[in-house]
């Protein structure tokens, strides 16, 4: 579904991602792990049309994304849950969700959008309770649910998530990872960037390790979880333990 080849991303004259290649097949959940500053979010920004200064190849369903704007990429079927959530704080929860379907109204009509709205509200019932509340007044966990719901309202064929656990309480992180895992089990293709490496690999099919802008390791999630270098650098006792218990 997604193929990246020899991707190089720059901010000004400084290269942040160096000749990175990866692929995502339909139905997979792929995790990209690495330390802060490794280039993970920059890579996602290039895929989603939020970074223009890049070279190499990015293809989605066989179509090059070079030169496409972010709205055009959303219309192709890629939807992003950005780092830090970036919800529309002055708008209500319901308006935020409807904004997620902005590119669909002309093509799909109100009835299909309403069906997806019902699906999102069933997934996150608290959003129904908060429907008329200003999004900026929600808790961090509620804002993350809203950001995921907003992305799903675009009806993506590839859901991209950037650090969805950042700044959240442990119980909320458990719920967010459970939701991501459930979406994957229901056939949503997912590309996940997450500093919580162990939890990310516990729900992934395959993983990539990014260090200082270079892809240094890849393999099945199970292989990476037992790799000595990965364990030493990234894995500790964290929310992956919850996922172990959930899957038993």
From TrEMBL:
Record domain ABC transporter: where: 2-237
Domain of life: Bacteria
SUPFAM superfamilies, A to Z: P-loop containing nucleoside triphosphate hydrolases (SSF52540)
UniProt-recorded name of the protein: ABC-type branched-chain amino acid transport system, ATPase component
Family: Belongs to the ABC transporter superfamily.
SMART domains: AAA (SM00382)
The keyword Transcription regulation is assigned to this record: no
Biological process (GO), any one: L-amino acid transport
Keyword Transport attributed: yes
InterPro entries: AAA+_ATPase (IPR003593), ABC_branched_ATPase_LivF/BraG (IPR030660), ABC_transporter-like_ATP-bd (IPR003439), ABC_transporter-like_CS (IPR017871), BCAA_Transport_ATP-bd_LivF (IPR052156), P-loop_NTPase (IPR027417)
Keyword list, A-Z: Amino-acid transport, ATP-binding, Nucleotide-binding, Transport
Gene Ontology molecular functions: ATP binding; ATP hydrolysis activity; branched-chain amino acid transmembrane transporter activity
């Amino acid at each position: 579904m997604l193929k990246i080849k020899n991707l190089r991303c720059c901010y000004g004259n400084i290269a942040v991602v160096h000749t990175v290649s990866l692929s995502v097949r339909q139905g997979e959940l792929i995790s990209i792990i690495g330390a802060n500053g490794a280039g993970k979010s920059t890579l996602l920004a290039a895929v989603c049309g939020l970074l223009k200064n890049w070279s190499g190849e990015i293809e989605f369903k066989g179509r090059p994304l070079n030169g496409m704007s972010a709205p055009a990429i959303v219309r192709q079927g890629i939807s992003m849950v950005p780092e830090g959530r970036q919800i529309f704080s002055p708008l209500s929860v319901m308006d935020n969700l409807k904004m997620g379907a902005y590119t669909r109204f002309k093509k799909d009509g109100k009835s299909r959008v309403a069906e997806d709205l019902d699906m999102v509200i069933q997934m996150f019932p608290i959003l129904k309770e908060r429907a008329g509340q200003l999004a900026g007044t929600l808790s961090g966990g509620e804002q993350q649910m809203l950001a995921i719901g907003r992305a799903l309202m675009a009806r993506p064929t590839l859901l991209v998530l950037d650090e969805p656990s950042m700044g959240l309480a442990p119980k909320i992180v458990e719920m967010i990872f459970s939701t991501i895992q459930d979406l994957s089990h229901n056939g949503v293709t997912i590309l996940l960037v997450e500093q919580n490496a162990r939890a990310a690999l516990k729900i992934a099919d395959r993983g990539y390790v990014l260090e200082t802008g270079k892809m240094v390791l890849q393999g099945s999630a199970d292989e990476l979880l037992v790799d000595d270098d990965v364990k030493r650098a990234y894995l500790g006792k964290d929310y992956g333990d919850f996922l172990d218990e959930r899957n038993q």
